[in-house]
Amino acid sequence: MKKLMSLVLLVTLVFSNFIYVPTTASAAVTGTVVFSGSTSVNPLIQALAEAFMAKNPGIKIIEQNVTGSGAGITDAKDANSIVDFGMSSRNLTSAESDVLNKIQICLDGLAVVVNKSNPIDEISPAQFHKVYSRDTSTLNWNQITGSYTTSVKIAPFGREAGSGTRSCFEDFFKADYGTALASGYDVNLDGSLASTGVMQTSVQNNSGAIGYMSLGDMDDTKVKALKIDGVEPSKYTVADGTYAIKRPFLLVNNKAKKITPAAQAFLDFIASSDGQAIVDKKGFVRNNLVRVKATDIALRSKSINITPGFSFSLTPTVVPADTTNQVLTFTSSNTAVATVSSMGLVEGVSTGSATITAKTNDGTNISRTCKVTVSYPVTSAKLNKTSAKLEVGKTLTLKATVEPANATNKDVTFKSSNTAIATVSETGIITGKKAGNVSITVTTADGKKTATCKVTVK
Asked: How does residue 17 score in pLDDT terms, banded at 50, 70 and 90?
């Protein structure tokens, strides 16, 4: 089964006209594998290479001319180049596909990023297009709802010509939004930057900046990603196609050149579970990534009784265990009675009842409830007599005491063990019926605490 799953994973790495046939690398394989091209793909290749070389000390992975996808494609097209693979963060043109094989190692989303001080959380494609067209209606951030209220100049940054990231950005407007950016739009930007790292630093250091960069390379402690059309950029929204700005990460190689054993071994590693785990950890989108939806929520109890000031954990579990988004939202129907934390910890506030609801956040809208009763519980019950004598036809009153004194529910019931000898009313009045012995028991409604009086009827 493990071999079958591995084969399925490797098949998913096949992209278009390149048929990838994995091999088993020999420990004796040595050599050098050279990459060039995309600044977006390069950090992922470096992370993969570091792990691969630790297991394969005889093989060395090196990068050169890491200046953009165009450089990698150009180097790979040159049959005399020492480059084994060009790194590209854009798809190939039909002319390039005539010369090059391509392997999709993962997908990536293009995050639209702003300075972390900018209060804006979302931008529409129309606003995004106007910003990069330098439309007069979007020259300052206070012209866009949700952003700064003061007149902060919008500083749009782009990538340099030949960048795969720039191609993805421009293709979004042309293909997805439906209105391409005008030729020469880039001359009016605040800068056309040479790498992903420079883009992030430029946006981080400019309160009015906006830019675009690889989602996997983005550091959210430095910049903030915006929602597009209400959709947050994430691995899963890229994988399921709900986030519009996305692209493939490709390795391209010349069809006329045979892949070396060392290069083949590295491809095998990328396709392995270890390699795909690195793709996932770096924030990129595995080719076989599927969002697992919740089917149920399990709570520790459906009803609980607690005392004011005390807490109870519902210990929530999302089913199945590998649900992608396991975040739950908890609410209380009456926070004056009971509150609940984001982790499902219920705390009693005052006596009464409330309903706690747990709800999924992955679009399934599954909810489960727990009824909470907050009260001071009964700890014991006592009678004013433990034994008594009574004549036939006469009455005797028993008085019940419920502890503690502040118990919320002090209701009790009385019962005779033999009503032919003596009966007892709801208020504890015993009536003798005939000679004999009988037990009168009082029971609390809360906690079922009991006390008994032995009665002899003469």
From this structure: very low
